[in-house]
Design goal:
The complex is a heterodimer of chains A (about 190) and B (about 160). With about 190 residues, chain A is mainly α. Helices cover about 65% and strands about 0% of the residues of chain A. In chain A, helix 4 crosses helix 8. The longest helix of chain A is centred in the middle third of the chain and has 24 residues. With about 160 residues, chain B is mainly alpha-helical. The longest helix of chain B has 26 residues. The chains are: A mainly alpha (about 190), B mainly alpha (about 160).
């Protein structure tokens, strides 16, 4: 497993060269952005439950066959497995975002994931859709553009489900593009 | 590759949990020291050839017998290899300064080094002399800031410890 710094060491070692001023300048950027990066990781980890359950619920709303008898989220046991997998994927994305490098996501999560899902008969398109919803809501949490669930007549007792970050709005925009790339990496690995 | 971030992620992964607040704190702690480390790495890279040359000269001036026939430096090719090895160690120190841990030195420099030197019948004392010279030679603020110099010197000490 590598992070942004050890990635620089590995690629310099391949050339038997020192890590010079050019690479160090880009690492200084990582350091300058470090606090927003930690805020972004915190935005994902403190809202993981909300992000995962919303994504799986959204996936099912779009394809209700999943929870009918014979569907892949029926019975509860398989629904629970689906929620668990969503959380595992989100967890590895949080690790990758913290490290600033995709190697932990690749090595420990995506390697063989598609083959495993095919062997278990899990529909890849549904899984990819859930990850896409997780991407949208995670980025909303990171960028502070998330909104509360809309009130309806039948649902007057709504409480705030997520932990509103107290960071400056848009402060994490540089890191959010990187976070998006990790979600896209998962989606393309499933495709 | 061992660094603060990878250690934190490995521990969190083994427990199957999201990065916790204390994980983020320890990453933040290493980031705060990082600017001094990067300064040392940058200055070392800039003066790399001079540092290696001076360290290599130190070992042959302290142990002139090395250039006698039958010793480890009895022809120019062997002498050049000694300078090359010192350069390798210095390069790994540069990586360690960037990574913020001893991972590169451990994995690429120190693991197996003792066995290799014994097999090839190379004494390690001259290397120690070379790195001790490099450690004594560093001067703050002429070469780098005090904090950066402290990070650089502690890695030189780490190499010296592994070779002695």
């Amino acid at each position: 497993m590598l992070d942004a710094f050890s990635r620089a060491a590995v690629s310099a070692d391949a050339k038997t060269a020192c890590i010079g001023a050019g690479e160090i300048a880009s690492l200084k950027q990582y350091i300058a952005k470090a606090n927003t990066r930690l805020d972004a990781v915190n935005a994902i980890t403190s809202n993981a439950n909300c992000i995962v359950s919303d994504a799986v619920a959204g996936m099912i709303c779009e394809n209700t066959g999943l929870i009918q008898a014979g569907g892949n989220c029926y019975p509860n046991r398989r629904m629970a497995a689906c929620l668990r997998d969503g959380e595992i994927i989100l967890r590895y994305i949080a690790y990758a975002l913290l490290a600033g490098d995709a190697s932990v996501l690749d090595d420990r999560c995506l390697n063989g994931l598609k083959e495993t899902y095919i062997a278990l008969g899990v529909p890849l398109t549904s899984q990819a859709r859930a990850v896409a919803i997780m991407k949208a809501s995670s980025l909303a949490h990171i960028n502070e553009t998330n909104t509360e669930t809309q009130m309806t007549e039948s649902n007057q007792m709504l409480q705030q489900r997520y932990n509103k970050m107290a960071t400056v709005k848009g402060d994490c925009s540089m890191v959010s593009a990187e976070a998006a790339s990790y979600f896209d990496r998962v989606i393309s690995a499933l495709g | 590759m061992k660094s603060v971030v990878t250690t934190v992620v490995t521990a969190a992964d083994a427990a199957g949990r999201m990065p916790s607040a204390s994980d983020l704190e320890s990453v933040q702690g290493s980031i705060q020291r990082a600017s001094a480390r990067l300064e040392a790495a940058e200055k070392l890279a800039a003066g790399f050839d001079a540092v290696v040359k001076e360290a290599g000269n130190a070992c042959f001036s302290k142990y002139p017998y090395l250039k006698q026939a039958g010793e480890a430096g009895d022809n120019q090719g062997k002498v050049d290899k000694c300078y090359r090895d010192i350069g390798h160690y210095m390069r790994l120190i540069n990586y360690c300064l960037v990574v913020g841990g001893t991972g590169p030195l451990d994995e690429w420099g120190i693991a197996g080094a003792r066995e290799v030197y014994r097999t090839l019948n190379i004494p390690t004392a001259p290397y120690v002399a070379a790195f001790a010279q490099a450690r004594d030679r560093g001067c703050s603020p002429r070469d780098m800031s005090p904090q950066a110099l402290a990070e650089y010197n502690s890695l030189l000490s780490y190499v010296i410890e592994s070779l002695s």
